[in-house]
Amino acid sequence: MADSGDGDAVREPCAAPGPYAAPDPYAAPGPYAAPLPPPAPNSANRPHYLLHPAYGGHPGLPGYGGHPAPRAPLAHPVWLPARPGNGFGTAALVVGIVGVPLGVAVVPGIVLGVLAMVFGAVGRTRRARGQATNGGPALAGMVLGGVAVTVSALVVALLALAHH
Engineering a disulfide at 127: which of 104, 117, 135, 156 sits with its beta carbon 3.0 to 4.6 angstroms away? Predict the structure, then answer.
């Protein structure tokens, strides 16, 4: 900037841009500017990310499309893999855990111990067939069921010895 002498700064005209200068983003397009591509069919001038069926939005709201059209039925059924049936292994573990402390009360200890062993055996069989994924808890339930039955048997033996 140059000073005109009276304290006012005078702007000097800018130099013409060189051959490597960035184009002015605010300048009007020249006569040889490339035309914009036409909008996609049925797009209603929406951005591309709003045209995907997953972004259907609510009907009637500006800028969003309606719900996606229902899909046609498939030519063949799609079978999803079955979820593993881990119920017996889990039941064996829970019943075995409850059965061990209740082994001192003879009848609940024996009943729960036998149930834990049966559920554990079924759970291990299902694991061997690939129908379950928790063979470890099933085995632990079988072991705890055996412990519960053993504790109950020891209580019965101690009571029998105490009465003689």
Answer: 135
CA angle, 36 then 37 then 38, to 5°? 115
Mean pLDDT of 95-121: 96
Q: Are 102 and 81 in contact (CB under 8 A)?
A: no
Q: How confident is the model at residue 109 (pLDDT cuts 50, 70, 90)?
A: very high
pTM, 2 dp: 0.52
Dihedrals φ, ψ of 126, to 5°?
A: -65, -35
pLDDT tens track for 9-59:
666 656 566 677 777 777 776 777 776 666 555 555 555 555 455 544 445
Q: How far apart are CA 101 and CA 113, in angstroms?
A: 11
Tokens of 27: 């300048």
Distances (CA, A) of 34 to 25, 28, 31, 153: 15, 13, 9, 93
Q: CA-CA distances (angstroms) from residue 61 to 39, 58, 66, 67, 68? A: 20, 6, 9, 12, 15
Q: What is the pLDDT of residue 94?
A: 97
